[in-house]
Each structure stands twice: as C-alpha cells, then as structure tokens.
Amino acid sequence: MSEPINPIINDQLDALLHGETNLVANLANASALLMQTLTDINWSGFYLYQPDTDDLILGPFQGNVACVHIENNNGVCGTALATQTTQLVPDVHQFPGHIACDSASNAEIVVPLTLKDGTKLGVMDIDSPLKGRFTTADQAILEKFAAVLLSHIDKA
Ligand code: SME
After folding, report:
1. How far does residue 149's CA lie from ligand 1's centre (Å)?
2. What is the distance in A from the centroid of ligand 1 to the CA of 19?
3. Which residues line ligand 1 (CB under 6 A)?
4. Per-residue pLDDT, 16
5. By alpha-carbon position, which residue is closest to atom 5 of ligand 1?
6. Where are the domains of the chain?
7. What's the pLDDT score for residue 125?
8. Which of 10, 104, 131, 155 has a CA positioned 20 to 30 A from the CA of residue 117?
9. For residue 117, what is the DSSP state?
10. At residue 145, what are phi and psi to the nearest 5 degrees?
C-alpha cells in the first residue's frame, strides 16, 4: 500500500507559485513538487494542447524521457483531453490504447487542465510503478492541485 496523498500539497503549491504567473515556470515547479512529495511515482508532468494540430505536446516534467506527441483521444492523456474528465487507471495494461513511455509505469492518473474561458491547456499526468496506486481520495486532491495550479496561470 502507498501512502495516501497529503492534501497539504495543495497549500504547498499555492505558496510555491505565489506571485508568479509564468506558464513554464509554474508547470516545472508543480511537476517537481509532485515528484518530491508523492510516494511511489516514477513520472509527473504535463502535456500541452496544440489547437492547430489538435494534439498534445510534451511539457515540463520529472522522470524518464517521454513521448513527445500524443493525439487527441489517444492513450490515457488523449482520453482525458477528449472527455475532459480525470482518467484514474489502476492498471495501465488494461487500458485500451495506453501509450507506454516508461516500462516501469503500471498505474496512472491524468487530470485535464482547462482555463476559465474554456480554453484547453492540456493535461497533468502522474505515473506509478504500483498497480492501484491512486485512489478516488487521491483523485480529489490532485484535481484540487490542478485547480490551484490553474489559478496561478489563468489571468482571463
Ligand atoms: N501513458 C500516457 C503517455 C504519457 S507517459 O505516461 C509519460 C498515455 O497513455 O497517454
């Protein structure tokens, strides 16, 4: 069993990003905070939506090198983007179309990121080597994490 995610991470993120609205800097620090704080994860980071090509491109992350382009509606990330819903995947090997970037990954959670005006920013992606790593309680905390992050980059 992994430790449940401590909701204090959301206060830490809020303090870490205080006074900064730069997208790249905030995504970089958010991915580092996730990697430093969460137990039993091997990748944390962001894919950014490109409306011109209707796909996702790799953004700031921590972990092994990863695939650069992910098509809309493909894999866990593309499904989160297309459906605009969090994808909580206890076993990635059971997820149709899962894109294996790191063979160590067995579980994954992907949260869509959308600005206040409805613009799709992309997705936040966290991978774990442990099947069943993420719970619905973790999901609620990570969705709040995404909301805190968006509040620091969304000036609309
Ligand atoms: N597994 C993801 C691809 C990104 S990596 O996990 C970093 C997916 O299926 O969309």
Report:
1. 21
2. 31
3. 43, 66-67, 70, 75-78, 98-99, 101, 105, 108, 125, 127
4. 97
5. 101
6. 7-152
7. 98
8. 10
9. T
10. -55, -45
d(CA 92, CA 99): 9
Q: What is the pLDDT of residue 102?
A: 86
Whole-number Å distance between alpha carbons of 128 and 138: 13
Quote the strand ranges of 26-106, DSSP E.
43-50, 55-63, 69-71, 87-89
Q: What are phi and psi of 68, to 5 degrees?
A: -90, -45
Question: 0.90 exceeded by the pTM?
Answer: yes
Domain 7-152 top-level CATH class: alpha beta
**Counting beta carbons within 10 angstroms of the beta carbon of residue 127, is it exposed (0 to 12), middle (13 to 18) or buried (19 or more)?**
buried
Minimal CA–CA distance to 32: which of 49, 48, 17, 52?
17
